[in-house]
Design brief:
The complex is a heterotrimer of chains A (138), B (527) and C (129).
Chain A (H helix, E strand, L loop, with lengths): L3 H24 L7 H19 L1 H8 L3 H17 L13 E2 L2 E2 L3 E2 L2 E2 H27 L1
Antiparallel strand pairs in A: 1-4, 2-3
Helix pairs in contact in A: 1-2, 2-3, 2-5, 4-5
Chain B lengths: L1 H8 L22 H15 L7 H26 L2 E4 L10 E4 L1 H21 L5 H6 L1 H17 L3 H19 L5 H32 L4 H8 L7 H17 L7 H5 L5 H26 L7 H23 L3 H22 L2 H32 L10 H4 L1 H14 L8 H13 L3 H27 L7 H7 L9 H16 L1 H16 L2 H8 L4
Helix pairs in contact in B: 2-3, 2-6, 3-4, 3-6, 4-6, 4-12, 4-15, 4-21, 6-7, 7-8, 7-12, 8-10, 9-23, 10-12, 12-14, 12-15, 13-14, 13-19, 14-15, 14-18, 14-19, 15-17, 15-18, 15-21, 15-22, 17-19, 17-21, 18-19, 21-22
Chain C lengths: L1 H19 L4 H22 L16 H5 L8 H31 L23
Helix pairs in contact in C: 1-2, 2-4
Classes of the chains: A mainly alpha (138), B mainly alpha (527), C mainly alpha (129).
């Protein structure tokens, strides 16, 4: 698998896939997509990078240990529901903000978005750790 | 994209789909026992390298869980069942969490059991195992168990079952000797099949009644006769949960696997996991499918319970490994709970709930105590184990007290539920049940008495003297006495002053048999 | 349509029970996997099959119009199945690794020979001290 072609294209392909996975993640609330699918795409991107360039560069590129990333995702997803404590609504109720920036750009932010980001991190973290563990064996 | 959100979605009128009533902050107690260990698990995973902190994070989290469960118990015993519907959607659609007395009592007791296990594990679990995620798995197991006790949605119950199942898989292989892997294979396969059966039953339930909310189901199914699809669904639930709870024809995985993992892990499993199966049975056959509660199915359950009690007792008598012996005692106690549920009266359900609390405390204590014995003697085989009483009289005394508790001697905690259940089964003319309870208590007494006589009271064997001298003080961790002592003390308190727990169990049983309060708590806001 | 799917579900379960009754671990694994797939199909069927009507409610549609039987496809079973698939995938992956490790350490995948945790030879306590 460690061919010159794959090694050359892998960094570009990986970055494209990660960007695409983020697009899928962000469009998830109203269109097909979401944290789980986005996470799968990103995880396969890192797995591909691992196949092409070895496990070490992936671990260095991720900086944090994949399992720690998924732990952080769990925390983020859980905490996104706690925001509703301050609004007197039950756990995990979707709450929205529409902060306006200069130039009339409105960015919709919501607790489901943060929940989804948490799911994305959990999926990326756990699948990358499995993939890297399998790739390390070879 | 932005315009779509700004115009379309947000403008949608959700008043018809969402609850408009404000949720008081106190309702957050309902999700507390799930969220606190969940966050702790996340933090433990993030800080996986800071192994020195792990036990303290876990202790703080379990302490917080116990505190919220206790507050929730106070609230539930005063105001009746409490409910919180996730995401604010109308209850049959949104997932509801319901705290009723049965769930909260079990949440509190399992919190205490886990607390003692965490304390015990401080001296037992190495840094490598902590990095592997021992405490994180422990926390997710607690999340799963508490979630199962508090959820009001049957598919959600399945999800929580899987959460603690995955955590228990991780825990049971930790360490990984050949014997342990062999036991883990049996444990994993059987539990995997049991949860799949649970899912099959849930699929049918949804196909027939179109809802998964327990209160909604109770309302819909409550008036139906026990026939047709309902029989199949009830039967599937009975088989699936009996498998999880280790009832008569399906208990063989338990004595095959519970003696193989690390002692803290088997103590945790013995205390909590089978009780979740029993809890699910109680929930299913009182609240969710009440028509099954007075049918021939209960007679089947009665005989399964009788067979479980007798087989557990007989199995315990022939064992030579201390932990396998305890496993059979555990199986026999499961039979007791099944008999209590199958009689289906208020008194018998009270006895069952009381016995569940007793069983969680005593079983965890028994297994942890076997760990202490192992630390001193390096073996749990009753053929070579000897002389504990002379060298460690206090340990021996604790075991003797636990023997009395587990076999139901007055004034200890095992006696009262047995007394109630015996009188109740005589009233219901289920004489076989009466005989089984008495006979199996007798067998437990013989089995545990023999264990005491051989392992503890017998003078030190000459053959084992050499190895004993080596292991005698190497594992000296006197701090590990504390969790066992805490559990025994609690069990003694429960036994000497049974009226508090009895009153709680009685009103819990009343709520189970008359589900109006439960339905009102869940669907009240939606109607 | 539901009838045919039910028959297929039945076939799945029959095959998986047959495989689970075998003594070889790997066959049992395949049996568990088949059973998981059968359950997913079962839940899908239990939600009733509706063609070509995605569960998206048009703006301003009256609730009676969309809540009728078969008016829209039922989205809930798909959510349930997705959950079940993810969970059973994780469990199956774990059990697969476990079975492989057990095979490595015990040297057999025959469940009848895996008796390490329950030794066959009878062990008795002595009659006295």
């Amino acid at each position: 698998m460690n061919t010159l072609i794959l090694r050359t294209i892998a960094p570009t392909l990986t970055s494209l896939m990660v960007i695409y996975s983020i697009i899928v993640l962000l469009s998830g609330h109203n269109q097909p997509g979401g944290g789980f699918i986005g996470g799968l795409i990103a995880a396969s991107a890192f797995a591909l990078y691992g196949i092409a360039c070895g496990v070490g560069p992936v671990r260095r590129a991720l900086y944090f240990h994949p399992i720690a990333i998924s732990g952080f995702g769990m925390l983020l997803a859980g905490l996104s529901g706690v925001v509703s404590f301050y609004k007197d609504v039950p756990y995990l109720t979707g709450l929205w903000w529409f902060p306006k920036f200069s130039g009339g750009i409105e960015v919709p932010l919501s607790t489901p978005l943060f929940f989804d980001i948490g799911v994305w991190l959990v999926v990326v973290g756990s699948l990358v750790s499995i993939a890297l563990a399998l790739e390390e064996k070879d | 994209m932005e315009t779509l959100l700004a115009e379309g979605v947000v403008a949608i009128d959700t008043t018809g789909a969402m609850l408009s009533k404000a949720t008081p902050s106190i309702d957050w107690l309902i999700v507390g026992p799930i969220l606190i260990p969940l966050f702790a698990a996340a933090v433990l995973i993030i800080l996986r390298r800071a192994v020195a902190w792990h036990p303290f994070i876990a202790i703080a989290a379990v302490g917080g869980t116990i505190a919220t469960s206790f507050l929730l118990l106070l609230r539930v015993s005063e105001f009746g069942p409490q409910a919180m519907t996730m995401g604010n959607w109308f209850p049959p659609f949104g997932i509801t969490f319901v705290a009723d007395l049965l769930g909260v009592i079990l949440t509190l007791t399992s919190g205490i059991a886990v607390f003692c296990v965490v304390l015990y594990a401080m001296g037992e679990i190495t840094g490598r195992e902590r990095r592997f995620g021992f405490y994180a798995l422990l926390m997710t197991l607690l999340v799963g168990v508490n979630g199962a006790f508090l959820t009001g949605d049957i598919f959600n119950l399945y999800v929580w079952f899987e959460v603690f199942l995955i955590s228990s898989f991780g825990l049971i292989v930790m360490g990984g000797g050949a014997k342990q892997l062999d036991g883990a294979v049996k444990y994993c396969f059987l539990n995997l099949i049991a949860t799949t059966l649970f899912l099959i039953a849930t699929g049918y339930l949804y196909g027939v009644y179109g809802t998964l909310n327990m209160a909604d189901l109770s309302k819909i199914v409550g008036a139906k006769p026990f026939e047709g699809a309902l029989v199949i669904i009830s039967m599937l639930y009975l088989v699936a949960f009996s498998m999880k709870a280790a009832a008569f024809p399906l208990y063989f995985w338990l004595p095959a696997s519970y003696h193989t993992p690390k002692i803290v892990v088997s103590a945790l499993f013995a205390g909590l996991l089978t009780k979740v199966g029993i809890y699910a049975l109680i929930r299913t056959f009182t609240i969710i499918l009440p028509p099954a509660g007075d049918s021939w199915l209960m007679l089947l359950m009665l005989y399964a319970g009788i067979a479980t009690m007798v087989c557990g007792g007989l199995g315990a008598v022939v064992q030579t490994d201390l932990r396998r012996l305890f496993s059979y005692i555990l199986v026999s106690s499961i039979g007791f709970m099944l008999i209590g549920l199958s009689l289906g009266t208020e008194q018998s359900l009270t006895a069952t709930m009381f016995y569940m609390v007793h069983s969680i405390l005593v079983m965890t204590a028994l297994f942890l105590l076997s760990g202490l014995v192992y630390n001193y003697r390096g073996t749990l085989d009753l053929r070579t184990l000897s002389g504990v009483n002379k060298d460690f009289p206090f340990l021996s005394l604790m075991f003797l007290v636990l023997v009395f508790m587990a076999s139901g001697f007055p004034p200890f905690s095992g006696f009262w539920p047995k007394l109630v259940l015996i009188s109740e089964s005589l009233d219901k003319q289920a004489y076989a049940g009466t005989c089984a309870v008495i006979f199996s208590s007798f067998l437990s007494m013989i089995a545990l008495g023999r264990a005491y006589a051989f392992g503890f009271w017998r003078p030190l064997l000459k053959t084992s003297e050499d190895e004993v001298r080596q292991t005698q003080f190497s594992g000296m961790k006197s701090l590990q006495y504390i969790p066992v002592l805490v559990l025994i003390t609690l069990a003694i308190v429960v036994g000497v002053m049974p009226s508090y727990l009895f009153d709680l169990s009685a009103s819990g049983a009343k709520n189970l048999l008359n589900s109006t309060a439960y339905i009102e708590a869940v669907l009240g806001g939606a109607l | 349509m539901e009838t045919y799917l039910s028959l297929i579900v039945g076939l799945y379960f029959a095959a998986s029970v047959y495989l689970l009754l075998s003594e070889s671990l790997i066959r049992m694994l395949i049996g568990v996997a088949l059973m998981g797939n059968g359950v997913n199909l079962l839940i899908f069927t239990a939600g009733r099959i509706t063609r070509d009507v995605p569960p998206i409610i048009a703006k301003g549609a009256a609730s009676a119009q969309v809540m009728g039987d078969g008016a829209i496809a039922n989205p809930l079973p798909q959510a349930l199945i997705l959950t079940a698939i993810v969970i059973s995938f994780a469990l199956l992956a774990f059990v697969l690794v476990l079975a492989y490790r057990a095979y490595e350490t015990t040297g057999t995948d025959d469940t009848a020979e895996m008796r390490l945790s329950e030794p066959i030879e009878p062990a008795h306590l002595p009659k006295g001290y």
